[in-house]
Design goal:
- The complex is a heterodimer of chains A (90) and B (422).
- Chain A has 90 residues and is of the alpha+beta class.
- Chain A has one domain: Ubiquitin-like (UB roll) (Roll), CATH 3.10.20.
- In chain A, strands 2-1-7-5-6 form a five-stranded mixed beta sheet, covered by helices on one side. Chain A has a two-stranded antiparallel ribbon with strand order 3-4.
- The longest helix of chain A is centred in the middle third of the chain and has 11 residues.
- Chain A is globular, with a radius of gyration of 12 Å.
- The termini of chain A are far apart.
- Chain B is 36% helix and 15% strand.
- In chain B, strand 10, helix 9 and strand 11 form a beta-alpha-beta unit.
- Chain B is an alpha/beta fold and 422 residues long.
- In chain B, helix 9 crosses helix 11 and helix 10 packs across helix 11.
- Chain B has two domains: 143 residues, Rossmann fold, CATH 3.40.50.1100; 202 residues, Rossmann fold (3-Layer(aba) Sandwich), CATH 3.40.50.1100.
- In chain B, strands 4-5-13-10-11-12 form a six-stranded mixed beta sheet, with helices on both faces.
- The chains are: A alpha+beta (90), B alpha/beta (422).
- Chains A and B meet through strand 5 and strand 7 of A and helix 6 of B.
Chain lengths: 90, 422
């Protein structure tokens, strides 16, 4: 199941300059693993001790996965997964 | 300027003083770092220099991340932009008496150009934006920031784009649109607005989103609240601050302001006990604090305190750390308590605050009722915005008399105290 991962500007240098990467995966965790298989450096930028870093937000269809099932959150085929820094606003 | 670089709060990676807000390595927030060597050598001289400064936040320019205050004149109020700050600190004896407290002061930041503390942060962010060559201001806002950015754009002759949730209070929408900004209402809550602005900020490189790519500079503007409180108390710190928490930025920067001046020997005392205030309908920080955690689980806001309705607070973890370090508290109050808080402050001080101030006042009452505040404590209540912006909160909350224009009608209808004859 193809999923599009949208990357913020801060991560694009670690992903060959791409703003979007197409991967396979049925859950957020699987999609991210597939992303790291292509661009290994991203793993340490996004994860610490096997968890999403506390200042990393991941959205599926505009919803923060922390509201949903975290890394187990299902991603529909053809869906979008957006990674953004948590620190903004207020 | 005293600012030397940006530094990640999480991993200490350093960056140049440019328009970046998040660490490329760990996504931690960037903060401005300073070298204040020289200012500590002669604290009395530094204090005199501050006191001889203009009657606005630029009297603290040495402690702000700008090359220089806005030209042409930093000496008077009539400088470029909207001079923010130097708002009243009022001793609220009747409020203290009502709550059974010893000494309460109210820092009334509704006295700013667009009637909220946001003029402070926008003044700093927009000046830095000009220095960095940006031509457009933008923001994600719960209302008050929208007012401040739209007004600053008009004052500075910069285009502006203001993004708000579509369900904001009418007063805040009207008081933004009047400045001729590009007002964009998003069908969603503040966190949706914020997410969109994050995405847009990556694509519009000539836009200074004051609370996204300019966020490190923006946040520093909030320190001026601490500087003013300390200066107004005679260069001393209060014992406790009670202030609102939305993203947690204001709350943590107030403490940073006190710390900086304590480190430089400009003021006496300790970092105050920090008591945070949230609305029960949007209390991710208060909830995490109560549960002993330091990560805030995002919530969907449902409260009349829309200016505090941030369900996914960026600086929540730092606000929690700060409250714990200073022996402080973070409480949440219901919508009814917020309305009562607005009334309490209005009746005892003559200050009419918006719902965020109602949250703060209600939290002070809660702390007082709980016996949390010592009799000898000097408490400062931080009121961040004006009641005229959230009129619905007081609608139908009191009765009035409607009479004919005759003394008979007055005597018949309006009760008056019995006349005492001597």
């Amino acid at each position: 199941m193809a999923v599009t991962v949208k990357l913020p500007t801060q991560l694009r240098d670690a992903a060959g300059g791409n703003a979007e990467v197409a991967v396979e995966g049925a859950t957020v965790g699987e999609a991210l693993d597939a992303l790291f298989a292509q661009h290994g450096e991203l793993r340490d930028r996004l994860f610490q001790d096997g968890e999403l870093r506390r200042f990393v937000n991941v959205f599926v269809a505009g919803e923060d996965v922390r509201y949903l099932d975290g890394l187990e959150t299902a991603v529909p085929a053809g869906g979008e997964l957006t990674i953004l820094p948590a620190v903004a606003g207020g | 300027m005293g600012a030397t670089h940006l530094k990640c709060r999480e991993c200490s990676t350093e960056y140049a003083l440019e328009a970046s807000f998040v660490c490329n390595q760990c996504f931690g927030p960037l903060e401005v770092a300073y070298d204040h060597t020289g200012l500590a050598d002669d604290p009395a001289a530094t204090r005199r220099r501050i006191q001889a400064g203009p009657q606005n936040i630029w009297r603290y320019a040495d402690f702000l991340p700008v090359q220089q205050p806005p030209a042409p004149s930093q000496r008077v109020g009539s400088i470029v932009g909207l001079p923010a700050g130097c708002t009243p600190l009022i001793k609220a004896d009747r409020l203290a008496e009502r709550l059974g407290l010893g000494e309460v002061w109210v820092k009334n930041d509704a006295h700013n150009p667009t009637h909220s503390f946001k003029d402070r942060v926008v003044a700093v962010a927009s000046q830095r934006a000009r220095e960095l060559g940006f031509d457009t201001l933008a923001c994600a806002s719960t209302g008050n920031l929208a007012n401040a950015v739209a007004a600053a754009g008009a004052a500075l002759g910069m285009d502006s784009y203001v993004f708000i949730p579509s369900n904001l209070e009418e007063q805040k929408v009207l008081a933004t649109g009047v400045y001729g900004t590009n007002l964009v209402k998003i069908r969603g809550n503040y966190d949706d607005v914020n997410r969109l602005c994050l995405e847009l900020s990556g694509e519009h490189e000539n836009w200074a989103f004051v609370n996204v790519n300019l966020r490190p500079y923006y946040g520093e503007g909030s320190k001026t609240l601490a500087y003013e409180i300390a200066e107004q108390l005679g260069f001393e710190t209060p014992d406790r601050i009670v202030g609102p928490i939305a993203s947690g930025s204001l709350f943590t920067k107030i403490a940073k302001g006190f710390r900086e001046w304590l480190d430089l020997g400009l003021i006496e005392g300790d970092v105050p006990t920090m008591s945070g205030a949230q609305a029960a309908g949007c209390s991710p920080v208060a909830t995490a604090f109560a549960e002993g955690k330091n990560i805030c689980k995002p919530v969907k806001p449902d409260t009349i305190a829309k200016s505090l309705a941030i369900g996914n607070p960026a600086d929540g973890p730092f606000a929690i750390d700060l409250a714990r370090e200073t022996g402080g508290t973070i409480d949440a109050v219901t919508d009814d308590e917020i309305r009562a808080g607005i009334r309490l402050l209005a009746e005892t001080t003559g200050i009419f605050t918006e719902t965020a101030g109602g949250v703060t006042a209600a939290t002070l009452k809660k702390l007082a009722d709980r016996g949390e505040i010592g009799k000898d404590e000097r408490v400062v209540l931080v009121i961040t915005g004006d009641g005229l912006k959230t009129l619905d909160a007081v609608r139908d909350s009191f009765e009035s008399y409607e009479i004919d224009a005759t003394t008979a009608s007055f005597d018949q209808t309006v009760p008056t105290p019995t006349k005492v004859t001597v």
